[in-house]
Design brief:
The protein is 0% helix and 52% strand. It is an all-beta fold and 180 residues long. The strands form 2 sheets. Strands 1, 2, 3, 4, 5, 6, 10, 11 and 12 form a 9-stranded antiparallel β-sheet that branches. Strand 8 (98-100) and strand 9 form a beta hairpin.
């Protein structure tokens, strides 16, 4: 991970996971999960799977993206990546990671997203006709310049850093460039 990358989510961002020894999923804020091992839903490239995970505290950012997808509102770093359905090669971020070229699924930086973009959300009600992938649209998006920098947090799996994970609403996102 480059130190210059503006990744992660605000500490108030909810994530649903399973703490070992429990049977029920619980949503909690990222900032409350630092130092706690838990299982979280990830996207493997073809299906959702539960993986061991940990929350990492990142530097505070003075410039963030505030957005809403499928009713879920959050703030994230400019370089946080989201899985975009039916991307156009010229419209995907520099340094992009193409997850599935046959179905036109790629990661796009938060700074480059626009209202109306189709974010891959397994199980969502809307389905792209050309790829067959389900999605939710970005309904609100803006870059904010904060007077007081906000601490960011990222989620990574223990088995494989860079595994795209799911936010509430099954929004597929990733903080890491190396998804190999």
């Amino acid at each position: 991970m480059d130190k210059q990358e503006a990744i992660g989510f605000a500490g108030s961002t909810l994530v649903t996971g399973f703490v070992p020894g429990t049977t029920e999923g619980a949503s909690d804020k990222l900032e409350a999960l630092v130092g706690i091992a838990f299982d979280v839903a990830t996207w493997t490239g073809s299906t959702c799977a539960m993986r061991k995970s940990a929350v990492v505290q990142l530097p505070a950012l003075a410039e963030v993206v505030s957005m809403e997808i499928n009713g879920t509102k959050f703030k994230c770093g400019l370089d946080q990546q989201f899985a975009v359905v039916n991307y156009r090669p010229y419209d995907v971020s520099e340094g992009r990671v193409v997850l599935d070229p046959a179905r036109k699924l790629a990661l796009k930086r938060a700074r480059d997203l626009r209202s109306g973009d189709m974010i891959f959300c397994p199980g969502a009600k809307d389905k792209d006709k050309s790829s067959g992938l389900t999605y939710s649209r970005v309904s609100k998006h803006r870059v904010q310049h904060l007077k007081v920098p906000e601490r960011m947090y990222s989620l990574g799996t223990m088995e494989k850093l860079g595994m795209p994970f799911l936010l509430p609403g099954n929004i597929v996102t990733s903080s890491w460039k190396d998804h190999g």
